[in-house]
Each structure stands twice: as structure tokens, then as C-alpha cells.
Amino acid sequence: MKLYRTFLFCFVIFLFFGGISCLVNRLDQKQKFSANIANASIPGTYPVDQAQVRRPFDNLENFFKIEGKIDIGDSLNSSLTRHQVPGHVQAEIIRLLSSCLDLKRLHADDRFSVILDESERLVKCSYECSPLERYTIERKNDILTAGRDAIDLDVQTVVFRTIIESSLLNAFLDQGEKSSLVYEFIDILSSKIDLNTEPRKGDRIEAVFEKYYKEGSFIGYGRILYVRYQQDDCDHEAFYYASGKKPGFYFDSQGREIGTFLIKSPVPVGRLTSKFTWHRKHPILGVVRPHLGIDLAAPAGTPIMAAADGRVQFKGTRGGFGKQVILSHSSGYKTYYGHLCRFKKGLKRGSRVSRKEIIGYVGSSGLSTGPHLDYRISVNGVFKNPLTMEFKPKSILKDSELKTFQVERGKLINKIHQVGGHNVMQVRHRVLQPDETIAFL
What we know:
By secondary structure, the protein is an alpha+beta fold. It folds into 3 domains: 35-149, Nuclear Transport Factor 2, Chain: A; 153-260 and 393-432, Nuclear Transport Factor 2, Chain: A (Roll), CATH 3.10.450.350; 271-384, Glucose Permease (Domain IIA), CATH 2.70.70. It contains 6 helices and 24 strands. Strands 12, 15, 16, 17, 18, 19, 20, 21, 22 and 23 form a 10-stranded antiparallel beta sheet that branches. A 6-stranded antiparallel beta sheet has the order 1-2-3-4-5-6, covered by helices on one side.
């Protein structure tokens, strides 16, 4: 009898706690998206940060949002799994995104968000590859569709003015601008003045350019519309102009195209350490002999550009020049690049190269006291000073086209004069369509 009572008591206790357990489980099923999911141990998943757990979407009680990013070594599938996106939702996302996005070219730090309803159905998914590239899956009328989004942008046209105190680069950086803008500024005037070697303290800079913003954040520079570089003894200007007859180029105030087939300097940022001369004491050999080129000091590994379209005449090691490339160009021109640390991969004798194409990298091979480029130009076998050579413009605007250019130039100059200092001249809204691209500087 005593044994029977003990058994009955245990059976009642079992039913009591079993009932409570079932009740708790049913409540858990109704509250699938509880914040406690962040601390749960779920087989086949990865731990997630508290900031990555599912949370109510737009204060709607029955919708939840999961946000995450692609880590190094991730696939989209593994990242979605780590962020606890249900398996059937993962399959839908991958299937739909693959119809408009190459999932093999995903990058670390790409970001995504997934919105689910209380039944764990996919409501919306956004995948952002860059500020200008975003893809969205969305449920409309119970049908999921995917595509690339249009992007809302604000474009500021900025007037920039400054004076060089230490260097051209610092003149821009001190005003809060980026180095990419400096290099484009240098490139525009590269056939008129070598802004790596010729800037002086007190030189004045003026420019008008576009700055793109998305949701208030700067994302890149658009086109430079105007540049001006003033020294005491010279004044260089360039205006961007495009007409229906030809693509856009830069022209001076007289309608002469800025730029020639040969750039002034093949090194983006270099410091002049030796000039063109017929009498120089060699720093290693100690003898006086001609130096029929210029030396541009730059950190080892700095890219070297071809000064013009041409063909590789020589690539190899050549005496005191060390590793050297010689390019032949039209009209009897040749350019010489010495003391390289290495050549561009795949470059060989007879290869065709384009203007500004990388051909090698600054080094200190041969008879050299430090990393620099020995750069030389010859015309029909006669060496010329790269810093003083003058070239004819590629084209000149004439007749009605010149008149139109002068009108457009006048309008821009008037607007510039109305803006003081480093200020915004104009703001416009632009919607970047899915089939459009922007090439930032």
C-alpha cells in the first residue's frame, strides 16, 4: 500500500511539471522572435552579437529585421546562416539575388538586411555592394521580385581656393579634400606644368568640382569643371567643355585643348633631385659628365606611367641605368625610364602601351644612391629637357564652336566670382538609375 501511494504521488508530480513544460513550449512557439534568441544555443548556427539579433521592424509588432555583413571568407549562404536567417528564407534570397547579381563577386563588408513576418516568410531583403549598388527583394501581392535599385544622390558643385604653404598635396588635404582630387588636378595640367616638381610656396590654386553625397555622407568626386594654377610668372587655366560634335575635354581660355600626346611627368608624385644638364658630377663615380634627363625621387614601388602611346623598344638591364624601359613613339620621339625595381608583369619587347599605362615601378637598380626614376626624352636621336619642352595642342576650337565655348566659359567664370572662399556654388538632386554608372575620381 505504501509503495502504491509513493507511485501515485510521483505520477501526479510528473503530470504537473509535464503540463507546465508543454504550456511553456506553446508560448515559445507563439513568440518565435523573442529577444532571447540571441542567447540560445542552436545546433548548426553560429553565435551572433546582440546588435545582430532579430528586432521589430519599424515598430510593427509582427515584423522582424535581421542585419549583417559579409566577413572575409564568407559566402552569402554562410553569412545568412551565421545571422540565423531560416534555411527556407536563405534559399529564396540566393535564388532571387542570383537573377540580378553575380554572387561569385561578393566582397567582405557587403551589407544586407532581411525582414521577416511572424510566420518567418520573407517580406524584404536588401543587399548593398557599394554606396551606388544596392539590390532589393520585395514581396508585393504575395509575389517576390528582385532587382537593382535606383539611388538618390545630392551633387554639390564646389568652388575651391587655396594657397600653397608647404606642398600641393597638403594644400588640398588641409582644406579637407582627398588625395584622389589632387592627382586628377595634376593630371589635367600635366602637359602644361609638372606639378610634382615645379610648385612653389605662395602659388595660388582655384578649382570647381562636383562632390557626391548619399544620405548626407560624402561618397566621391565627380567631374572637375575648372582648374587654375597661378605662379608669379605664369597662369594656367583649363575648362571642361563638351559639345554635340565631340566628347568632353579640357581647353584653355583661347579654346586650345589642354594636353598633348606626351605627359610632363611619368611619376604621380615625385621630387626633382637632378635636372637636365651637360655638366654634372656623378654622385657615385665622382666624374663630371652630362645628365641628359631628370631624376624624380619617389618611394620604392611607386608606379611609373608611359608618357605617351608607344611600343616597348627595350626592356632589361642596361649598365648604370639598372632595370630600364625604352619606349618608341610617333614623330621620332623616345622616352627612357631607368633604375626600376621591377617591370610590369607581362611587359615585353614589342608590346604596345597606352599613355599613362603602368610600365614599371620606381627602384634603385644600377648606379643609384636611392629610389628614383631617371627619365629622359629624345627626338630623332637628340635628347631634350623634359621640363622645358613645348608641344602643340591636340585640337583647337574654331568658328561657332569656339563662340559657344566662350559663352559657356563666361557663365562659369561669373558664377565663380559670385562665390567666395571654399564654398558650395550649386546643389542638385540626381537619381542614379539601375543601368547608369558614375566614375568617381
